[in-house]
Amino acid sequence: MSVVPKLVTDEAPDADRAEQRMQSLTRAFQLLELMASNGGSMALSELSHQSGLPLPTTYRVVNSMVSEGYVRRLQERGYALGPRLIGLGAVASRMLGACADPFIEELVEAVGETAGVAALDGESAAYIAQAPSRFAMRMSIEVGHRSPLHCTAAGKVILAQLPPSQVKHLLARTELQRYTPRTISSFPELKEELATVAKQGFAVDDGESEKGLRSIAVSVPEAPVPMALSVLGPDSRLTIDTVTAIVPLLHSTAAKLMTCV
Questions:
Q1: Residue 47 CB coordination number (10 Å)
Q2: FRET pair for 183, CA 20 to 30 Å: which of 36, 69, 76, 232?
């Protein structure tokens, strides 16, 4: 009686280990994004609840990131984004800005006013790229500048991309500060405004964040985080009548920015 030898291979165990590593990586990014969308810190139980992961799994993944510096443990028994992410974010922001600059400068040449790209960062919109107007009197924004979400064109476009539950969660932690008589300062009014923004595909800040300032913004398609491309200028030049002419240029430029994100 002969015995047919069996081929012994480690391929299946190796494949299983690779799949487990990929699953752990996916879970880690999921938890980091949840922390970011919730202001940067969360309790372990809330992380588990929102992610749908079992509490022991959440604990294991989070503590693995703590040991690497991507997450830090808080005294209040919660967890927050860690310092090691700062360098990664800074490098990614610079690279995105360098890629976006030529497209934004082209937009400035076409409309004559300052343009910038902002992304959701915690509870505000942070500018990651900008190109200034050629006019001596112009609106100035710097990379890293943070703007409120409820009263700027970029902020409203970003909010309009989010699920209503996330918008409610974000704004529950912030005061709808009134900067001018035109600032939207009530949740029902803002909800109505965001519905209009989502329907028409652009937002306008008509002196809501600062008197004499007007800005127009559209979303950047397929961005990994909610992003907006905006044009800002004095309302004496950037009139309401120019909005219909500028919006198509914004959408065209935003489509080009997809190559950067």
A1: 23
A2: 36
In a domain? residue 1: no
**pLDDT for res 64:** 92
The total number of structural domains in the chain stands at 2
CATH number, domain with residue 76: 1.10.10.10
Task: Judge whether 210 and 141 are in contact, CB under 8 Å.
Answer: no
Helices 164-172 and 187-200: crossing angle in degrees, nearest 10, is 140
DSSP 3-state of 165: helix
pLDDT in tens, 64-107: 999 999 999 998 778 999 988 877 877 777 788 788 899 999 99
Tell me what the pLDDT averaged over the chain comes to: 87
CA 145 to chain centre: 14
What pLDDT score was predicted for residue 102?
Answer: 93
CATH code where residue 157 lies: 3.30.450.40
DSSP code string of 105-164: HHHHHHH-SEEEEEEEETTEEEEEEEE--SSSS-----TT-EE-SSSSHHHHHHHHTS-H
231 phi, psi to nearest 5 deg? -120, 135
